[in-house]
Here is the input.
Amino acid sequence: MRLTAEKVKFIRESLRALPPERRYLIQFLHQVQTELGYVPEEALKEAASYYSLNPSEIFGLLTFYSAFSLEPHCRHEIVVCQGTACHVRGSGSIQAEFSRLLGIRAGEDNYEKDISLKSVNCLGCCAIGPVVVVDGEIKAKVDLKQVEKIVRQITSEKAKNENK
Amino acid sequence: MKISKFKSLKELDSYRVELGSRVSNKRLISISAASCGRAAGALEIASALKRSIEEAGLEEKVQLKLTGCHGFCQFEPNVVIFPEKHFYPNLRPQDIPLLVEKAVLKGEAAEELAFKDELSHKRYLTVEELPFYKKQVRRLLDAHLDLDPDSLDDYLKAGGFKALSSILKKNDPIQIIDLISASGLRGRGGAGFPTGLKWRLAREAKADRRYLICNGDEGDPGAYMDRGLLESNPFRVLEGMIIGGYALGAEKGFIYIRQEYPLAIEKIEQAIGILKETGFLGKGILGTDFSFDLELVRGAGAFVCGEETALIASIEGRRPFPRQKPPFPVIKGLWGKPTVINNVETWANIPLIIDKGPDWFSALGTEKSKGTKIFSLVGQVRYTGLIEVPLGLTIGEIIEEIGGGSKNGRKIKAVQIGGPSGGCLPASKFNLPVDYESLSESGTIMGSGGMIVIDDSTCLVDLALYFLRFASQESCGQCTPCRLGTRQLVRILEKITRGQGQLKDLELLEKTAWTMQKASLCGLGRTAANPVLSGLRYFRTEFEKHIVDKECPAMVCKSFTAYVIEAEKCAGCQLCLKGCPAGAIKIDPHKVLTIDQDRCTVCGLCYEVCPPKFSAIKKISRKALEKESGKTPDFN
Here is the structure.
């Protein structure tokens, strides 16, 4: 898949807006990840030449951090917190139930429903766990019964938008 | 009012006097609006309050404020009304008109909305009366009740930047280090290294420049003290760093925050911007010749970055691999220069120590552990939240008196302290004082302050497995003992939870753990086995039960657990039948429901959907089930 000219422009401009010192590399990757939803190969190559680094070195950095992804993900995102406090209150079964309903494991995408499932180590909302983040919105004290509702809500919204 | 740049210390002093003279006789409603408050609907409560106040035409009589975390996170969204300090928990938008009518219009307490203790049914009105707050000493957290984290005025009014002005007037950086040493402050990130000594070493190291770093990569799952501080009182952390910059002769500091904390990042970014505009950061701070700047660095989701040398690599833009120590960062840190790395809470303590003196600070605490410490008290405890207590309080006092004991009447069996590097302490150790030495002697660590209470519904083998899975995912992979050791421990523990364990596996666990402790490169690997070791030390019988009796006492491990429907309790509502994802629930012509054990995946959904008035689904051990049906369990 080739990038649109607009996206290539975004990559180049955000790169040039930062000094060519490697300490700004993470900041650049964050910008690309936030704007495009992933870090395309082009961004990696452009960054390598801008920072005079071997692309493999940037690849190593990129894949080390869980915040960056090399592939685009779905429009909707469900993140299940797996912090200790959530774990002892049953986040494991919640994750399993999402996995079952969506037919994917954490870190995978259900393209048909346009939902990505992720897990996160801890969001620091431990007193109100188990916590699930649905499209950026934190849901507190989630139980097994709510899992299906959450998925249904996303799919029905999606259907509504498509019918418009 | 927009503050212009302070050009001298005098200007700041007179502005402070002016602020003090602005007395407001408005009632203040402060809404707890840190991340957990917002998740629970704090912003909706805020707009409902605004609407209600406008409708009643009371804008002149009351001020609304979005503050940081009030600490009683379980009862979000909550508000505190000043000057009475009345606490109203778990508010819903429909409660607001009553609250406004009673508390604002009539100026009396809205008793029906006040906090009600579940057990005694007693109502508590003020923050001071609440058992959750009573035993705490909230030196760092107290300001969170009424301070707007976006407002420099609020911070100045609360005595903010007094410490900075006083040290700039005295002009004696070494004396600051002496004060910090005298206070006995130790690193709040976990290891407990004396902060004053760390600063002295960096100050005395020969170099043309020095750096300082605030470690806000709070990666321990189950801990959120730093998030609380960053979101609720960002200026105090930054003031601590500016004072540190002055004491160390550093011109630049970095504040590293994990990307999972978007609100903390937003608040700090904004606070840094305000401080630059008002002359607290940059060249010639407050008209003196001291220059210092701060930069925010956003983490990218790697637990190992909490390790100081990995964090340095991450800021430098390299892959965050920890490196061999020594040389320690105080000698060779960021870009090879002496660097002081302190945790968020450590930095937040600095202005208080300078302002109130080392004796005030060390008046609380034990002989070797001074001051107060923030903990996140979570898990299976009745009251969860962010608490601050003097060091030396016992674990039991914290759990029983602040946390209110068990959440649902079950037996509390342990408390997990120190996250993936810490361990579980059994109830028999609850008389232990919380200080650095006592905790490490009993096999855990202070850590950054996560305190997760565990009752008998949690399996210690499963919990050890949880932490080891975490450690093996987060191991950077650089050194063999950690990379392979964590995976090996995961494999053995998985075997045990599946019912395939052997007694000699316990020895193997201990041997592997020993190797990891001795031979790993960094703290992550050296402490990763602690959850297993402390589990074996205090809960060996629980491990043995899994191996010998093929039983999980907490009924968590799925291989040992089954669900059955109690025919005499079942009302035949069929909710479980509809809910069962495996199609394992059968109904016969007489409308009696049963679970087909061969198809059941032990997901527990039926257990949750069964209405509490029936609670007809029972969790039993697989062994008991097989005994009934006359089959022998097969775990292979």
Observations:
- The longest helix of chain B spans residues 530-549.
